[in-house]
Amino acid sequence: MSQEIINADVKGAQSNAIKCLNISEKKVGLFVTCLVNTMRPSVGFAAIKLLEDAGCTVDVPESQSCCGQPAFNSGDDEGTRQIAYQTIKQFETFDYVVVPSGSCAAMIKKNFVEVLKDQPEWLARAEHLASITHELLSFLVDVCDFEPSGVELEGSYTYHDSCSGYRSLHVYEQPRKMLANVKGLDHRPLHGHSECCGFGGTFCVKYSDISNEIVAEKAENVLATEADYLLGGDMGCLMNMAGKLNREGHKEIEALHTAEVLAGLAPQILGGKNASK
Amino acid sequence: MQANKPENFYQNVKDALAQPDLKMIIRRTTDKAEAKRAEAIANFPGFENARKQGQKVKDHTIKYMDHYLAEFEKNALAQGTIIHWASTAEEASKIVLDICRQHEAKKVTRSKSMLGEEIGLSHALDNSGIERVETDLAEHIIQLAGDPPSHIVWPAMHRSREDVIKLFREYHKDPTYSEEIIDLVRSARRDLRTKFLTADIGISGSNFLLADSGSSCTVTNEGNAELTITPPKVHIVTAGIEKLVPSMAHAIPLLRLLTRSATGSEITQYITFHNGAKRPNDADGPEECHMVLVDNGRTKMLADGMEEMLRCIRCGACMNHCVVYKHIGGHAYGSVYPGPMGSVLTPHLNSLEVANKQTHACTLNGRCEEVCPVNIPLPKLLRSLRAQSWDKKYEPLTNRFVVKAFAALAKRPMLFQWVSSCGVIFMKLCSRKGWIRSMPLAGGWTRNRDLIEPESKTFMQQYKAMKKAKSDGA
After folding, report:
1. Boundaries of each 4Fe-4S ferredoxin-type domain copy (chain B) (predicted)?
2. Is the dihedral of CA A49, A51, A55, A57 positive or negative?
3. Is 60 exceeded by the pLDDT of residue A21?
4. pTM of the predicted structure, to 2 decimals
5. How does DSSP classify residue A168?
6. Cβ(B269)–Cβ(B221) below 8 Å
7. What is the ipTM of this complex?
8. Which CATH number goes with the domain that contains B291?
9. Contact B362/A200, CB-based, under 8 Å?
10. Would you say residue B367 lies in a domain?
11. Which residues 28-87 of A are in CB contact (within 8 Å) with B?
12. Closest Cβ opposite residue B449 in set A196, A203, A240
């Protein structure tokens, strides 16, 4: 993995860096997210590669944990505040904070201020953090004007727009725009592309059977596209849909984080059909 | 069908998911509603403006509720309407029953009213031996079937055409043997016509109360509200105080939003503004008009910072677009109001202790807020109810423990990282061929789906090793 990144297309990175001169001096802090950290580290490395290609200097604070969604969505405001304090301290000094997940980015951007609204000092710091925090795919396009070049992936993809990214952060065009530059990759529209997959964080274990009905329907829609890859920007949704597809015996489609595809790291994915070859 | 209870939500959900046809039956209605709404909104370029305007009208009226209620009362009294104030559901339904008793009513007709359901009027009338005739077609169907409503706009959506054919043949005096919709509707009309004309009292709800005239507006497609209100000697309106708007001009943008959001139509067949009892020169109309204005938790919502919910105009769009509602249906919620709006309202009408599970049965995906014609931030309100449940310790102990343990770890990043890496080792042990089919403590996930096998090391472990290799190399 690490060798991959060190050997990344240096020329491509340089040309992109020149294109993104406006942020070339900018320091980006990567908020890895729990699911990327434990379940899919390759997404984190893909994010670093893309951000560096886009001309950013990336640092990953080692003392980071979770964005606090499980506590916040369960109604534990005090627990959320404790998590928010240390996340703010870790990340507030960066020029930008980038998150490879719409829901974790939305948590930092929208909900820290909600739980800290009665603490003026922290509120100001939370507002500052919110203003510099971005979801990865929208950051690459909206802030860096990044266009991937020299990436190839043979096949077709369909796209699931995760709810938080789509509704809270308006991530929709950006991934599609970048994926259009991947050679050999065609888009197959997904019926109900922005309808919830049934993940919902703790919802999917608390109400496992309702979640199952929702994801079963999503899986049907995904299969109907006959695409080779199911792409998205949130590991939670991707794991939910991939897990259901696999349980139902559908190996013909592979779920990948969009960053993995754009960084050209897709074939290394563990558990995927390409890896087993 | 026996009404479900909100406190039995888990069991209600199980029962709903076990019904093989339920999802298909719900979809027949919600898919059509979704498509028709989308088309209506696309053909209404002023939608976003109307939405902002509608929200403003509601927010303004709610903010000056005391003023407009007083104005409404003054103007309604001026046209001879008798005003009653009810602070609870029981009080409201007792007021209606007392009026019925005073007039020795034997038969009452009712046009569809969710507020009527909320105050338990159906049961109260049935228990007091008064013949209750539901005149809305869907309400007529569920009255015959003995069901509670499962949707606030289409209360009989859980019943199939086959069910209706059976019910009508069993209960109508002059039933049809055709299975065509038009013939079924005619059969219901024949059954209801004589009842409209022989009722002692007509009871209606209200879509809007106009403060500057003291009138009440009903929105229907069947004309049954007009036939409920006009022939009997006495008309009783039951309405929640949040139905108030300053004037007809203020009701219009809300009407445009309501019909499009509910059924996808630009306007309904009948929109009527009722102005109290018959005046000396009127050809017809009730001789006496009563209005029962119901609080039942609404002013408390205002005090509790839930005022945004009082904007609700009961269009049902939030449930038509809710992935959870679409799979479990309205009855599973065990309350009068189902779906997202119901999950916010029920804790206030009933109690949070009884109805907190519903506030968690939501993925917070935001679709309900996206389609709400008056911009109610339903996910935010549901989340704030979860926070109240958390503070009041209504959450099951195991959930509390897991969330607390997680939060305690998450605020200690180094420990969190270490536990994450242990988790990866544990998951690797449970994996086979790239997937985990079952794993201790993860039954909620693996009961219905597989879990991807993680890489051997966490991102942080790999990142640190990479950085070290780089600095060693340099």
Report:
1. 308-376
2. negative
3. no
4. 0.93
5. I
6. yes
7. 0.94
8. 3.40.50.10420
9. yes
10. no
11. 32, 34, 36-42, 44-45, 60, 62-66, 68, 70-77, 79-80, 82-83, 85-86
12. A240
Q: Is residue B315 part of a domain?
A: no
Position A1 pLDDT exceeds 80: no
- pLDDT digits 0-9 by tens, B240-294: 999 999 999 999 999 999 999 999 999 999 999 999 999 999 999 999 999 999 9
- Tell if the CB–CB gap between A63 and B413 is shorter than 8 Å: yes
**Contact between B214 and B274 (Cβ < 8 Å):** no
Place of tokens 């340099």: B474
What are the φ/ψ torsions at residue B279 (nearest 5 degrees)?
-95, 165
Query: Does a structural domain hold residue B407?
Result: no
Tell me if A83 and B410 make a contact (CB, 8 A cut-off): yes
- Token look-up 């009127």 returns B282
If you count them, how many residues does chain A have?
A: 277
Domains and CATH numbers, chain A: 2-142 (3.40.50), 150-268 (3.40.50)
User: Distance of CA A214 to CAs A188, B328, B382, Å?
Assistant: 21, 10, 20
Same domain? For B105 and B228 the reply is yes
B285: left (phi over 0), alpha (psi -120 to 50) or beta: left
Q: How far is CA B36 from CA A44, B43, B266, B322, B366, in A?
A: 42, 11, 10, 16, 20
Which residue stretches of chain B have pLDDT < 70?
474
Which of B15, B21, B320, B365 to mutate to probe the A interface, most A CBs <10 Å? B365
CA distance B195 to A117: 58
Give the pair of three-digit tokens for residue B352.
Answer: 């949070």
The answer to whether residue A82 scores a pLDDT higher than 50 is yes
Q: Determine whether the interchain pair B386/A77 forms a contact, defined as Cβ–Cβ distance below 8 Å.
A: no
Q: Is A129 exposed, middle or buried (0-12, 13-18, 19+ CB in 10 A)?
A: buried
pLDDT at B473: 81
Enclosing H/E stretch for B150:
none
- Using a CB-CB cut-off of 8 Å, the residues of chain A touching B327 are 210, 213-214
CA distances from A256 to A130, A262, A275, B125 (A): 27, 10, 13, 59
Residue type for position A186: D
Q: Please check whether residue B434 lies inside any domain of the structure.
A: yes
Q: N- to C-terminal Cα distance for chain B?
A: 76
Chain A, residues 207-266, CB within 8 A of chain B, namely: 207-215, 239-240, 242-244, 246-247
Residue that is written with structure tokens 């849909």 in the block: A241
User: Is-contact A265 A49, C-beta < 8 A?
Assistant: yes
pLDDT band with cut points at 50, 70 and 90 for residue A24: low
**Backbone CA torsion sign across B226, B227, B228, B229:** positive
Q: What is the pLDDT of residue B474?
A: 64
Residue A186: phi, psi to the nearest 5? -105, 150
Phi, psi angles (nearest 5°) of residue B104: 50, 45
Any alpha helices (H) in chain A, and if so which ranges? 2-6, 10-19, 34-38, 41-53, 69-74, 77-91, 102-106, 112-115, 120-132, 136-138, 163, 173-179, 203-206, 208-224, 235-247, 258-262
Total domain count for chain B?
2
Distance (Å, whole) CA B455 – CA A214: 28
Count the neighbouring beta carbons within 10 Å of the beta carbon of residue B174: 8
Indicate the residue among B300, B319, B349 that finishes a domain. Answer: B300
Are B458 and A60 a contacting pair at CB < 8 A?
A: no
Nearest CB neighbour to B367, from listed A37, A41, A196 = A196
Q: B99 Cβ partners below 8 Å, 6+ apart?
A: B201, B234, B236, B290
Domain boundary among B283, B300, B317: B300
Print the domain residue range for B65.
39-300
